[in-house]
Amino acid sequence: MTWSNQEWWPEMLRLDILDDNAAELDPYGDDFDYAEAFDSLDLDEVKSDIQEVMMDSQEWWPADYGNYGPLFIRMAWHSAGTYRTLDGRAGAAGARQRLPPESSWPDNVNLDKARRLLQPVKQKYGRKLSWGDLIILAGNVALETMGFETYGFGGGREDAYKSNEAIEWGPETEWETTSPDRFEDGEVGNLKDPLANTVMGLIYVNPEGPYGEPDVEGSAANIREEFDRMAMDDEETVALIAGGHTFGKVHGADDETEVGPEPDAAPIEDQGLGWDHDFEKAGMITSGIEGPWNATPTVWDTGYVDNLLEYEWEPHKGPGGAWQWRPATEEEREDIEKAPAAQDFDESEEPMMLTTDVALKRDDDYRAILEDFQENPDHFQQAFARAWYKLIHRDMGPKQRLAGPEVPEEEFVWQDPIPEADYETVGAEEVAELEAAIRDADLSRTDLVKTAWASASTYRDSDKRGGANGARVRLEPQKNWEANEPETLADVLDTYEEIQADFNESRDDDVRVSLADLIVLGGNVGVEDAAADAGYDVDVPFEPGRTDASAEQTDADSFEPLKPKADGFRNYIGDGDWNDLYDSLEERMVDKADLLTLSVAELTVLVGGMRAIGATYDDTDRGVLTDDPGALTNDFFANLLDMDYEWEAVDDDEEVFEGYDRASGEKVWEATRFDLVFGANARLRAHADVYAAEDGEEKLVEDFVEAWHKVMTLDRFDLE
After folding, report:
1. Which of 90, 332, 628, 699 could form a disulfide with 82 if both were Cys (CB 3.0 to 4.6 A apart)?
2. Catalytic residue numbers?
3. What is the DSSP letter of 651?
4. Least confident of 119-133, 173-187, 453-467, 705-719
């Protein structure tokens, strides 16, 4: 096959990541309702089938202790545990563990066998049970079968059928390496955004310690940063590690046996299975570390916590050649209770610890939590149950998206709860009345559009967070984000509150309007009026029903990662203090477009339309390439592509540019990289050509309205 464009020109802007937003990738089609299909399952039957597989050891991949439960827990954990808060990407939704690169990560060695063991269950239930749900449910069933009481399970994870090329995994080009470029100023413990894992190809941190050395202090620092970036506090972190390491063992009994290539590099006859090795000769090889954590690796108890706290541990190179920890004295090694050998119950194995385990004991805050768990086993059980539930559902969004009979009644603040309306929502007549009130208010068209955009564009399809529903733009921290122009935003919201109060107090029925609906309706009014000024009569669709979240329903700290560092749609370039892996403003714009599920065409028309309206940060003229700002014209594209103008960077940063009339030399325009990329990039220019044409303006208006409405309703899961 010939090289791709990306291989010929590796610095080319990756617009292809937006193509998935316009493509039909699901073989079941757009009309298939997976949540409805999942609800039709007999979940008890499914769990029984999983349990039957779990206890039926196969000769081609024998189960440790005759029980695949620990393997299934690891599979579920490594599927969900890739989630990170900075961009909301990864996690269990989509079941991308079965697709590259995750399918071949060194940290996922032999999880291909776990999924292959479950193939009969998947085949039995077909479209009713996604791989995403099956992988996570198998982890729950494993925990329950081994004596643990889980908090519940919500289905609804639709499968992906293509790798997510938008995920930035890090700067390294080799597995199991850590480059200084992964960290700000090259310092361990300060990962660049949006990363969470500290090693390429590992879910979290190196179990041997930073850079493969048994450094417990550095390991604790990495653990704290990593788990914070997956939305876990100290107690949740300790609960997850201690709870997970209560079960199973790690494998690395041999350091000389050659292990075959990963699944995506394995020969075709292996049919997607990787890491082939002589099991009978070398035993099972996974991490290279060898041994269980306690004497009861298939039973829920406090054995892990007890061993970690009650013995002193020293580092040594295990049989697989990796750093691991053993009881520090011969006396302790004789005293510690042994576990049965995984494949021969007549033999026994001495428990071990990882550097990451000992790091918990040596860190004062983590140790205090461990001691509390040891003294209060019920608290340990509850903490792990809640942390595990959060781990496996964190990327699924609000509770209303969860399906099945085991969804708990409790709604957690990390699910961004939104209250149910205790009133009747507005109808067409009331909407017309409110539109008139908005038009009569002292609000500019740009303020209407920018406020609606500030509210709705926080949405991330990666983890279904943000959006206009809840009107959290009026709460901390969003109301003070620089990109939202806090003083102007406060004035707009004050006006909306007056309109809301006047309307609601005037009613003698149960009809009320929320601020969330008013914010979106105001943006629609701004778009309609801008289209009218350009000579087009349009109605932007509006579906009422949003409600207003309270501060108590909002975990303010967890919303901080949604803060725009830059926003190409409002031409906000920020302060340049990025601390991330994106090289240019245009990359940031494309990344944001992907989180909003926009296609290349939708990205193009939204930027051009908002420039024409003049909806730019701080009302700057940057990118407003028109003599008639406020009207929804095609002037932005026509003037950008006009060869009567030439562009020069204003400084060495090459972020802001000035446009000069070639004939007179007069400065006419000012723009940013966000603007000029629509003329410089071939694909974007191809779309800009369509809208710049004399007959392209009507299409621009139509497409802008459609794309605008899409963004305004991305979080309206109740409309699906």
Report:
1. 90
2. 78
3. S
4. 173-187
